[in-house]
Design goal:
Strand order of the largest sheet: 1-2-3-4-5-7-6
Structural class: alpha+beta
Distance between the termini: 36 Å
Shape: globular
Largest sheet: 7 strands, mixed
Mean pLDDT: 87
Length: 139
């Protein structure tokens, strides 16, 4: 039986769960102070995926008024291959579009072939210097 996955905005009660996801995915944990500073700008772009009351995935987006950035997408290894990452990105793109964001960028390490394939499946095109970019809100 598949559990329902809910995508929603991060709340401080999620911090421990988010740090667990980052750690399990081999990512550095952002300190509370750094997240607090980010959340003063665009809190609606920091999303969590919750399954059975557990944070299973996370993505951090930022928008500078010109470009959106996708940062720190991570899914707990125990919850991978269930579409969580794609759903997080889709919701983040919807929120970028609502802000009038015309293009979203992200960085992928050049040796991370699996990540490059994932982003390309979602329509992000590699550009020089390992930058991937996708227009938002256009057909």
């Amino acid at each position: 039986m598949n559990a329902v996955i809910q995508i929603r905005q991060f709340g401080w009660a999620d911090y421990d769960g988010v740090t667990e996801v980052w750690r399990s995915a081999g990512r550095d944990v952002l300190p509370r102070a750094e997240l607090a500073a980010k959340l003063t700008r665009d809190p609606q772009l920091f999303l969590v995926a919750e399954r059975d009351d557990i944070v299973a995935g996370v993505v951090l987006g930022t928008f500078d008024g010109r470009r959106g950035w996708i940062l720190r997408l991570a899914v707990d290894p125990a919850h991978r291959r269930g579409g969580i990452a794609s759903r997080l990105v889709a919701e983040l793109e919807t929120r970028f579009a609502a802000l009038g964001c015309p293009r979203v960028n992200l960085l992928v390490m050049p040796d991370n072939v699996e990540a490059l394939r994932f982003w390309q499946r979602l329509g992000y095109l590699p550009l020089p210097d390992v930058l991937c970019s996708k227009p938002i809100g256009t057909t």
